[in-house]
Structures are given as C-alpha cells and as structure tokens.
Amino acid sequence: MPKRDPHIKEYKNKRGERLFKFHLYLGLDANGKRVNITRQGFPSYNEAKTTYDQLRANGTQGYQKPKQIKTDEMYSLWFENYKGQVKESTANKTWQLYKNHIKPIFGNRFMDKIQVKAVQKFANQKAKEIVKYKDVVRLLSTLFEHAIRLGYVEQNPIRKIIMPNKTSRPRRDIEHNVYSKQELEEFLAAAKKYDITAYTYFKLLSSTGLRRSEALALSWKDIDLTKNTLSVNRTLAYGLNSKTIMQPPKSKMSKRILPISANLHETLINYKKSQKVIYKYLFHGANGKWCTLTKHAQWLNAIYKNNPNLRRITIHSFRHTFATLLISETNIKPKTVQMLMGHEDIKMTLDIYTHLNDQNKIDATNSIRELNI
Q: Which of 359, 326, 353 is nearest to 340 (CA)?
C-alpha cells in the first residue's frame, strides 16, 4: 500500500464524520504576499490528495482566492430580481418556503461547503414533513444554479441526489372532508342564526364554488342581480411582509362569470337590505375596506363553537362540497365543472374528484349485479 502524503490530515467533524484536509503554502503572489491555502471537508483521502497536487503544481500562477457566500446572502441576491417577475403573493409564498424550510438548515452555511449527503438528507426529511416538498428542494436548487452563474460554487449538489418519489405525509382527504346536502343545510341554518354576514359568505362558497379569498374580494359591482351572474375579477392574498393585498385571480381560467341560483339571489338581496351602509365590498371592516384574510376562519370557528354537533370541515371544503354535490347529484360534464371552479386544466378537476369516479364504478357494478341479465 503506497505511503500517504503527510500533508493530508484526517479529522472528524462535529457529527463524527471522517473527513480529510490539508494546508498548503503556494509561494508569493504578484504583490509579494504569501499565499497559504487550507482546504477541508473532503470525503476521501484520494479527493484531498488530487486537489492538493493540482494546487501545488500550478503554484501561484492564476490563483485567486475563491469567493464564498452564505445561502442567506445568495437568497437575498436572487430574490431581489425574482420578486419583480411574479405576483406579489407568489413572492411572499416563496419567501415563506425559504424562511420556514431552507433558512433554518442552510441559511448560515457557505454554499460551497454544502455536500450532497446533507442535501439528500434534507430532501428525505422534507418529504416526510410536507406534501409539496419538491417545491422546497427546487428552490434550493435554484439558489445553487444562481450561485454557479455568479461564480461562487462549481456544481449544484441537488443534481446528484435521488429525489424522493412520494411524500409520506398524508394528503388532504377531499372525499370525506365535504358535506352531504343535508349536512350543508344544517350548517347554513346554524350560520344564519349566528350572523347574516357569515351566512352569506358560506352560502356564496357552497353555491358557486368560489375560492375563499375570491369571495372576500367581491364588490357589489361584481354582482348582477338582473342577469343573475357573479364576476370573479380579483382575489385577496398575502403580499410581501404578510400585508393583505388585492390582486388578479389565481390564473387566467380563474377569471370567470358564474351563474347565481334563485336561492343565492334571495340571500344576496336580504344581505344587502340588512346593511346600514352599502360599502364597495360585500364583506368589509368597519371602515368599509375589505376584510382581513383571517375573518372567515373567525366566523367558522364561532359557528362550530355555538353548534358543537356539526361535523367540522375546512373553509376550502365548502368549495369542494359545491363541486362534489354538483357532480354526484346532476349530469354535469367535467368540462363544465372545470369552468365553474376556475381550474387551469381538466386534469386538475379530474384529479381532485377521482373519488366520485370510483363511486360511479361501484354503483355500476352493483346495478349490473342487481339487474342480473
């Protein structure tokens, strides 16, 4: 076995991992200053030896001290440009992803020191914690790609990891997190006793399939009680620094005109009559400005607190309740459901409501067995 170079030293880091390092004097640079190099973190002796020999052979010629940057600094550089290219709410969501997931692990670490092993462990852990773990991993990859362009790192360690195929965290149970028609009627009756504003809000969600923030953004100009239509033109969202902003809907398909049923028509007329002052927005604060993005949660919690026998569902599930009842109790076509829900493509509609298709298969099987011909 060849004798090892004594300049290559073995050591252990804080996690007990066996690594290699070296210290090398290259000579004097063009300004007469001594050039000393210390490199560490090599996973094997051979990698450390190869780098040591290359640096020693080149000497001070063309040598430049490598630039280093921490992940937090790189994120700030990248985000400054990114935030001007997307919706403010999207920029805020990206910041939340970074702050909550990447920053605690890698924020204070130099990017050129982050190894593939650490990134793989990070991806595996996020797959256990959150459903959209790939968004987090892709954001970290984007930062490494930006660092490569700016000359801070030579390679992106994300390219070398094995991305976990599926998250181990359970997805939302859409099939059971919706109301039956009877349960919806019981909830709306309880909401009506609690407060007419809250009742009107949940009636809108369950009668039109509006997203919760689309409903909060509605103005009276969006309601045409003559044509019985409702126009979706805006949505409330969290912008940078978590301030509430008004912006265009989620996607091109989200900007839509929805029909108003006779039942909802009556609800809106009664709600308008109940208002002492008719402000611009249907749902507003004391000064007439739009509600906060937490107001609907306060209404829902109060209704459930006053009516403990009601089965609890999430606010977003009133939108799913609308679509589920529409599909299960009518002959509506999936393409029409897509239009009403404002989904970008039909695949999204079908993916969300696959459980209805499964139930149809069961019903078909039972019917054929019963017919028995």
A: 326
pLDDT of residue 64: 58
* Structure tokens given for 332: 């509506």
**Exposed e or buried b per residue across 293-306, where buried means at least 16 C-beta atoms within 10 angstroms of its C-beta:** bebbeebbeebbee
Q: Are strands 256-259 and 229-232 parallel, antiparallel or unpaired?
A: antiparallel
For 9, which DSSP code? Answer: E
Distance CA 17, CA 19 (A): 6
Contact 124, 118 (CB under 8 A): no
Helical segments of 228-294, H only: 262-274
Closest CA to 225 of 284, 263, 269: 269
Cβ-contact 322, 209 below 8 angstroms: yes
CA dihedral 309, 315, 317, 323 (to 10 degrees): 120
CA distance linking residue 56 with residue 69, whole number of Å: 25
Given a contact cutoff of 8 angstroms between Cβ atoms, the answer to whether 72 and 105 are in contact is: no
Q: State how far the Cα of 70 lies from the Cα of 59, in Å rounded to an integer.
A: 28
Q: Buried b / exposed e across 176-198, counting CB within 10 Å, b at 16+?
A: ebbbeeeebebbbebbbebebbb
What lies within 8 Å, CB to CB, of 109 at 6+ separation is 70, 71
- Rounded Cα–Cα distance for residues 22 and 42 (Å): 10
- How far is it, in rounded angstroms, from Cα 206 to Cα 210? 8
pTM of model > 0.70: no
pLDDT at 357 over 60: no
Could you tell me where the DSSP H helices lie in 275-329?
Answer: 295-306, 316-329
244 and 268 Cβ atoms separated by less than 8 Å: no
More confident residue, 342 or 94: 94
Q: Which residues contact 76 (CB under 8 A, 6 or more apart)?
A: none
- Sheet containing 223-224: order of strands: 223-224, 229-232, 256-259
Three-state DSSP class for 21? Answer: strand
